[in-house]
Amino acid sequence: MNWKKIFTSKLLIAFIALLIVFLIVERIGFFNTNTGTVVTVLEVNEDTMLVENIQNEQFIVKVPKIITPLLIENNEYFIEYEYSNWSKPNLVYIQY
Hints:
By secondary structure, the protein is an alpha+beta fold. It has 2 domains: about 1-30; about 35-95, CATH 2.40.50.140. It has 1 helix and 5 strands, in the order αβββββ. The longest helix has 26 residues, at about 5-30. The radius of gyration is 20 Å and the shape is elongated.
């Protein structure tokens, strides 16, 4: 028996299993954070909007396509969005 092959294959299987568990936990939202802030909408696209918060920081938020026609550029909104280190912020709530 070749112990290096057995050890390497078991190590590879353990790594793949750990990666799958991490991806499942991340998709469920374990690493996601919700935050709310007042923003000014600078630009509206088909499924995103460019916003600027009170600290003059600009960022892009993913928006449902049904909401984008209702947004007016240069208006202030209170938004709640969900974000993680691996994806764009997603709009959860918006109020004029």
